[in-house]
Automatic annotation (TrEMBL):
Compartment annotation: Cytoplasm, Cytoskeleton
Annotated family: Belongs to the TPPP family.
Single GO cellular component term: microtubule
Name of the protein this chain belongs to: Tubulin polymerization-promoting protein family member 3
GO molecular function: tubulin binding
Sequence ranges of Basic and acidic residues compositional bias: 134-154
InterPro entries: EF-hand-dom_pair, TPP/p25
Biological processes, Gene Ontology terms: microtubule bundle formation; microtubule polymerization; positive regulation of protein polymerization
Record keywords, A-Z: Cytoplasm, Cytoskeleton, Microtubule
Major subcellular site: cytoplasm
Amino acid sequence: MAESSDMDQLLAAFRKFAVHGDMKATGKELNGKNWAKLCKDCKIVDGKSVTGTDVDIVFSKVKQKTSRIITYEEFRRALEDLAPKRFKGQSKDEALQSIYQLVEGQEPTNAGVTKVSKTAAVDRLTDTTRYTGSHKERFDESGKGRGREGREELVENTGYVGAYKNAGTYDAKTKEK
């Protein structure tokens, strides 16, 4: 029973890495980039016994000849290939269980993602109340952007010249006569 829940966690980790960074991914296959990310994030790559090159070689070995992706079954075979190399002092089954434990329940990390700057210079530059001239027209009183109306001069196709005071009175004048 414990083994099936472990396999569920392994499958969940596989799916999370499979959809990482790809809006169209279904979660049923893993590409080479996400396989390398999985191995790095789950600490399979340790830099000594298992390197990034080893990970790429195993990926090429387990995938179909013309394919650029691996399925869940191929993923498990790849872990089986890497397990004895990563855990040298253990038996094959122990090494496989150890590598499964590294992957189970893991998900992609977002290390190195750019954070929002909180400096005074950025606050000063993004304060819409201090904007002047034509830039001031792009925001309403609350500081919210007006969108298209603030960026473009919208043309009125009424047939009247701009700033004409009696616009729209032609029909009323012709009915009076």
